[in-house]
Specification:
Elements (H helix, E strand, L loop, with lengths): L6 H91 L4 E2 H6 L7 H12 L4 E6 L2 E6 L4 H4 L11 H13 L2 E2 H8 L5 H9 L3 E7 L6 E5 L1 H6 L11 H6 L26 E2 L5 H28 L1 H7 L1
Antiparallel strand pairs: 1-3, 2-3, 4-6, 5-6, 5-7
Helix pairs in contact: 1-3, 5-7, 7-10
């Protein structure tokens, strides 16, 4: 038997259905909002991962590029070092093969591109320092020579040491500091005349050479020093000669120098100066012959004097 609904219950039924529908709408909207939020979060997460992947890729590319640059620099340095080692061997071979000092320009001509001859020679000089032979420089020429402290091991004959006279030493000093200089200029500086044998002795030692002729009346011969002079006195260049201050500190001057006294800067350029003319062909050989004759005459005269002093009775008998 059906229950009969009251008016109040009939009135409340549509209202409950409306509430249920509104609740369903709210729940549906809430679900949609949550789904959208999840989609947004997922998109953000994917974007972040893409950025991370892109940054990592760029980082790998940068690292690879850096490594490539580093490898290239290492290769270049390796090639340069190999070229330098080869240059050392070339310079060493040239110096050993030559019987005369080798010009630096000649060594530079044989060097590979980008290699400086002076750097190679300085390194080679350092490598041979303290060994039985040393690499030395004389002006712009280089040569190997026996270490100075071992020279006695190779000496088989005792060479006669000829002591230079005071006049010869003074003349040599004037030529070294004032070159190119003539005989008259030497005498003017010394204040006395030079004997004929003084310059001959210096020429014989090969410390002094004939440079040319002065462009002046009489065209006098000019004199200068040689590489043998530098080699004997252990100088790399003529500019290594001591200056006025160094000579003072060594006690060579007593301090009573005239006002304005000075010393010229020594130069030994092979090229002739503006006031010099070159020697004519064969002229230097002629001077050498004359110097040899003068030396022979002086030697004969000295021996004759010594023999006369040793046998004075012969002179008395002859008288």
């Amino acid at each position: 038997m059906a229950k009969k609904m009251t008016n109040h219950e009939v009135a409340d039924q549509p209202h409950d259905e409306e509430i249920i529908m509104q609740a369903e709408i709210v729940v549906s909207e809430s679900v949609e909002v949550q789904a959208e939020a999840e989609v947004i979060e997922t998109a953000k997460a994917e974007l972040a991962m893409d950025e991370i992947d892109q940054g990592a890729a760029e980082g790998h590319e940068g690292e690879a590029h850096h490594n490539d640059n580093g490898d290239t620099a290492e290769i270049k340095e390796s090639i340069k070092a190999e070229k330098f080692r080869e240059s050392l061997r070339i310079a060493e071979a040239l110096l050993f093969a030559s019987s005369e000092p080798v010009e630096q320009s000649e060594i530079a001509r044989r060097m590979p591109d980008g290699i400086k001859a002076v750097d190679v020679l300085r390194q080679l000089q350092s490598d041979y320092e303290g060994r039985g032979i040393n690499l030395v420089r004389v002006n712009n020429r280089w040569l190997f020579r026996t270490a100075s402290d071992l020279g006695w091991l190779l000496s088989r004959e005792a060479s006669e040491q000829r002591k230079l006279s005071r006049a010869a030493i003074e003349t040599l000093a004037i030529i070294a500091y004032h070159q190119p200089v003539t005989r008259a200029e030497i005498e003017d500086i010394r204040g006395v005349a030079i004997s004929k044998g003084t310059l001959d002795v210096l020429l014989e030692t090969s410390w002094v050479r004939l440079r040319g002729r002065r462009k002046a009346p009489g065209r006098p011969v000019t004199y200068g020093t040689t590489d043998t002079f530098l080699l004997h006195f252990g100088l790399e260049a003529i500019s290594d000669l001591p200056g006025l201050d160094e000579l003072k500190s060594a006690g060579m001057f007593d301090g009573r120098l005239p006002p304005g006294f000075g010393m010229p800067t020594p130069k030994d350029d092979l090229a002739l100066t503006e006031d010099e003319d070159p020697l004519e062909d064969g002229e230097a050989d002629l001077f050498d012959e004359l110097a040899t004759q003068d030396m022979a005459e002086d030697q004969a005269e000295t021996e004759a004097v010594a023999e006369g002093e040793a046998h004075p009775e012969d002179k008395s008998q002859a008288a």
